[in-house]
Structures are given as C-alpha cells and as structure tokens.
Amino acid sequence: MPGLRSETAVDVRNLYVSYGDYLALENISFSVPHPSVTAIMGPNGAGKTTLVRAILRLIDFDEGEIKVFGLDVRENESEVRNLIGYVPQRERVREHIPVRAKDVVLLAKMVRLGPLSLPTKRDIEEVKSALKSVLLPREAWNKKFSDLSGGQKQKVLIARAIVLKPKLLILDEPFSGVDTVSQREIMGFLSKLKDKGISIIIVTHDINPIVEHIDNILLLNRRKIAFGTPQEVLTKENLSKAYGISVKVIVHGGACYAIIGDRHA
Ligand SMILES: Nc1ncnc2c1ncn2[C@@H]1O[C@H](COP(=O)(O)OP(=O)(O)OP(=O)(O)O)[C@@H](O)[C@H]1O
Ligand SMILES: [Mg+2]
After folding, report:
1. Cβ 226 vs Cβ 38: under 8 Å
2. Ligand 1 atom closest to residue 264's alpha carbon, by position in its atom list
3. Which of 6, 36, 85, 129 has a beta carbon 3.0–4.6 Å from 161's, enabling a disulfide?
4. Which residue has a Cα nearest atom 17 of ligand 1?
C-alpha cells in the first residue's frame, strides 16, 4: 500500500567532525526511524553536543553525510532548520534574557512568523498550552527568565522549542537541574509527541528515569559504541567500552541499567 513507506527522521553516514587537529567524531553512522524516541548517551567529551550541532548545521563536518527527513543538511539548511526544534545544552544558553518566561516562548513564535506580524489569540493559546505541557508553575509564567530556577528555565526552553511544532525535537541534556518527578512527567509528555508524529532525540546522562520511553539508544565515545534498543545497547560490555571501569550495571527485569560515575551534577 502506498503511504506505508517508513520514514527516516535522521540518517547519518560515515560522519567525521574535527576541531582543528582534534577529531571529535569518527566514522559515525546510524539511522533514526520516524517517529521514534532516541537517546544519545556517552561520557563528557564523547561528542554528543558536537553530533547534535552537526545535524543542525550549527557546525560544519569534515566527511560524511547527514540527511533529515531525506534532505541533505548541507543543501537544505533553512528547510532542515524549520523541521527541527532544538533545546540547547543549558551551559550554551544566554541566561540573562531580559523578558518574562512566557514571552521567551512567544518571541520564538513571532520570530518564526516574521517581522511586522502581531500575535493572534491562537498564538497566545499555543504559548499557554506549551507552558502547561512542560509543567511550568503558573506563578513562574510572568517572572523574568533570568529570575527562574535552573529547572524552570529548562522547562521554558523546552516550551520554546515545542511551540514551533517541529517534526523532530532535539534536546541536549534537557533534564539537568530538573527534579526526577518533573523529568518523568516531561518525558511522558515528550513521548506522547511521538504519537502525534514528532520524533525526539534526547542527549542524556541518566537514562534510568526515562528508559521506558526510549526506542533506541546511540552510545557514543568519539566513535559509535552501539546503536539499538535499550536492551541491545545497555549491556555491561558496551557501557564499559563507553565509560571505562567507572560504570556499574544493574540487571533488572531483563534490562541493564547503568550507574555511571562521571555524570553531571
Ligand atoms: N568549539 C570547540 N573547539 C574545540 N574543541 C571543542 C569545541 N567544542 C567541543 N570541543 C571538544 O570536542 C569534544 C566533544 O565535545 P562535546 O561538547 O561534543 O562533548 P559532549 O559529549 O557533549 O560532552 P558533555 O557531556 O560534557 O556535554 C571535547 O573534547 C571538546 O573539548
Ligand atoms: Mg554536551
């Protein structure tokens, strides 16, 4: 039957990325089916952010090919950018945005709509619904972004990405500073986006609170260690290859869980 052709959200082939003499990613290939939820895991400096930035064309790559929904990212920069929602790693975000939380989200929408456009009632409703879906408490909506707590800032940044209704949402460590209960709730919400035809790629150090929502994991340490389902990837052998001896693995209900020594605070 036509129309049943399975789509690929991201296809990375033989990717090499370097910073000067330093080879940050070496011969990375993997393919993210659409719609799906993929986690990218690996120790500090593994090249996770580098990979995400290469997919978004925020940095160039030396060799290889990246396609997003079949579009070569080098040849279709702006189309690809419009298909992807991006929540950058918090260290990379300018924290002193001098506007209210809800306006951070609204501004993203206005930028997309172009100059001279005014927000409609519907735009405002969409902003509210994005802020609700990330569980930002009401009393924080009118606070200045810079006055929010770390976890609240993170929620606003996620809302800013989803309000643009991307077909692929890439989040780089979105849960740093977010408590475990909110992590689970937001992840539950993100995985519902999959049912609406949105693929999710999430860079994370702590897979445990979200593993039930993950279809595939890319385990990385400059090279690809493994790509596959959590059960396939989270083996003691793979995790030791990625993290060295600091990893402890707990087997529970047929799945392996990693307790990783070097993870972020
Ligand atoms: N702009 C840059 N110039 C030079 N080297 C860089 C640059 N950005 C990253 N690197 C190096 O590339 C490697 C991969 O960095 P990257 O930020 O992709 O790692 P990461 O897996 O995201 O780590 P973390 O878990 O700490 O966020 C590191 O060794 C880093 O020092
Ligand atoms: Mg990073």
Report:
1. no
2. 25
3. 85
4. 49
Residues with beta carbon inside 6 Å of ligand 1?
Answer: 19, 22, 24, 42, 44-50, 89
Architecture of domain 7-93+164-260: 3-Layer(aba) Sandwich (3.40)
CA neighbours closer than 13 Å in the CB half-sphere of residue 7:
14
Domains of the chain, by residue range, sit at 7-93+164-260
* pTM tops 0.85: yes
The C-alpha R_g of the chain, in whole angstroms, comes to 19
Model confidence at 85, pLDDT cuts 50, 70, 90, reads very high
Q: Which residue's CA is minimally distant from atom 6 of ligand 1?
A: 19
How many other CB atoms are there within 10 angstroms of residue 19's CB atom? 9
Looking at this protein, which amino acid is placed at residue 23? L
Q: Is the pLDDT of residue 52 over 50?
A: yes
Tell me which residue has its CA closest to atom 25 in ligand 1: 44
Tokens of residue 53, six digits: 């930035």
Ligand 1 pocket test, candidate residues 18, 26, 50, 225, most atoms within 8 A of CB? 50
Report d(CA 86, CA 112) in Å as an integer: 14
Q: How far is the CA of 74 from the centre of ligand 1 (A)?
A: 22
- DSSP 3-state assignment of 39? strand
Q: Return the best residue to mutate from 44, 203, 205, 225 for the ligand 1 pocket (most ligand atoms within 8 A of CB).
A: 44
Do 85 and 52 meet the contact criterion of CB atoms below 8 Å apart? no
Q: Find the 117 Cα to ligand 2 centroid distance in Å.
A: 35
28-to-43, 53, 101 alpha-carbon distances in Å: 16, 14, 37
| Dist CA 118 CA 135 (whole Å) | 26
